[in-house]
Amino acid sequence: MALKIEKTFQIEEPVDKVWAFLSDPRKVATCVPGAQITEQVDEKTYRGAISVKVGPSVTNYKGEVQILRLDAQNHEIEILGKGQDVRGRGNASMKMTGKLSPLPAGGTEVTSISEVNVVGILAQMGSRVIAEVSNIMFDAFTKNFQERLKASAVPGAGDQAGVDELKPVQATSVAWQAAKGLFRGSS
Amino acid sequence: MAKKQMVRVRVNGRERQAEVEPRLLLVHFIREVLQLTGTHIGCDTSHCGACTVLLNGKTVKSCTVFAVQADGGELFTVEGLIKDGQLHPLQEGFKEEHGLQCGFCTPGMLMSCFSLLEHNPNPSEEDIRWGISGNLCRCTGYQNIVRAVQFAAGKLSHEKKAQGALK
Amino acid sequence: MIHKTSPEIGGMGHPIKRKEDLRFIQGKGNYVDDVRLPGMVYGQLVRSPYAHARIKGVHTENAKKLPGVLAVITGEDLAKANLAWMPTLSYDKQMVLATGKVLFQSQEVAFVVAEDRYTAADAAELVEVEYEELPVLVDPHKALDSGAPILREDREQKNNHIFHWEVGDRQATDEVFQKAAVRAKVNAFFPRCHPAPLETCGCVADFNRATGRLTVYMTSQAPHAHRTVFALVGGIPENNIRVVSPDIGGGFGNKVPVYPGYVCAIVASLTLGVPVKWIETRSENLQSTGFARDYHMTAEIAADSQGKMRALRVKTLADHGAFNAAAQPTKFPAGLFSICTGSYDFPTAFCEVDGVYTNKAPGGIAYRCSFRVTEAAYLIERVVDVLALELKMDPAELRRKNFVPAERFPYKCALGWTYDSGDYDAAMKLALDKIGYQQLRKEQAEKRKKGELMGIGISSFTEIVGAGPAHTFDILGIKMFDSAEIRIHPTGKAICRMGTKSQGQGHETTYAQIVAQELGIPAADVTVEEGDTDTAPYGLGTYASRSTPTSGAATAMAARKIRDKAKKIAAHLLECSEADLEWEPGKFYVKGTPSKAKTIQEIAFAAYTNMPAGLEAGLEAVDYYDPPNLTFPFGTYICVVDIDQGTGEVKVRRFLAVDDCGNIINPMIVEGQIHGGLTEGLGIAFMQQIDYDESGNVQGGSFMDYLLPTAVETPHWETDKTCTPSPHHPFGAKGVGESPNVGSPAAFVNAVVDALSHLGVRHIDMPVTPWKVWSVLKEKGVTG
Question: The sheet that has B14-20: what strands, in order across it?
Answer without folding.
Answer: B14-20, B5-11, B73-76, B52-55, B58-61
